[in-house]
């Protein structure tokens, strides 16, 4: 495994994102919706660095088998509360093809939140257009399979405090 983003670089960027979100949502009380399992560490650090009150909820979806998106997104576990008329910020680990995020956005928009934004830590460079529509993106990374800081390969590596890339098969 090759190290891609160090712990201190991650921490610095996550604090920046938290500062920006806190500024953008001052006088509101957004619901941070963490996408499980990959976003758990990012969400924990992001929430801790916020200077405004937030609520936290989780959505558990799966779309990946090993290194390849199956293309079928499944909702394993739903939110614990209604998000109708709430300011929602989806917190995701990584966007690759964008299929998972497309499903999540469509699903959550149906519940009529007041606003819906996406905060993703990693934007993987692929053929799709860049994530201009997302307000908060941590890092753009080259193609390759990223692990650590919540991200897994077959449920391994999630505990690492940095982001690494594992070798192609
Ligand atoms: P997409 O649907 O192709 O955008 O894939 C996004 C989902 O697949 C994310 O929610 C991740 O959990 C997972 N994923 C995509 N790329 C990687 C990666 O490089 N490492 C770990 N998980 C990934
Ligand atoms: Mg994920």
Describe this structure in words.
The chain has 169 residues and is an alpha/beta fold. Helix content is 22%, strand content 37%. It has three helices and nine strands. Strand 3 and strand 4 form a beta hairpin. Helix 1 crosses helix 2. The longest helix is centred in the N-terminal third of the chain and has 18 residues. It is globular, with a radius of gyration of 15 Å. It starts with a strand and ends with a strand. The mean pLDDT is 92. Bound molecules: inosinic acid (IMP) and magnesium ion. Magnesium ion binds next to strand 5.
Topology order in helix (H) and strand (E) letters? EHEHEEEHEEEE
By secondary-structure content and strand pairing, the structural class works out as alpha/beta
**Distance separating the two termini:** 12 Å
Strand content: 35-45%
Tertiary shape: globular
Question: Percent range for helical residues?
Answer: 10-25%
Q: What average pLDDT do the residues reach? A: 92
Number of strands: 9
């Amino acid at each position: 495994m090759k190290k891609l983003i160090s712990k201190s670089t991650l921490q610095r960027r996550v604090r920046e994102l938290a500062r920006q979100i806190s500024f953008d949502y001052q006088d509101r009380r957004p619901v941070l919706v963490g996408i499980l399992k990959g976003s758990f560490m990012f969400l924990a650090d992001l929430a801790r660095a916020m200077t405004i009150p937030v609520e936290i909820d989780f959505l558990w979806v799966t779309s990946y088998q090993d290194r390849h998106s199956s293309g079928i997104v499944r909702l394993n576990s739903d939110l614990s509360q209604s998000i109708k008329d709430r300011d929602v910020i989806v917190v995701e680990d990584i966007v690759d093809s964008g299929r998972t995020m497309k499903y999540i956005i469509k699903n959550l928009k149906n519940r009529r939140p007041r606003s819906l934004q996406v905060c993703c830590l990693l934007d993987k460079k692929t053929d799709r257009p860049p994530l201009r529509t997302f307000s908060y993106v941590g890092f753009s990374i080259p193609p390759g399979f990223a692990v650590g800081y919540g991200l897994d390969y077959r449920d391994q590596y999630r505990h690492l405090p940095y982001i690494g890339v594992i070798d192609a098969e």
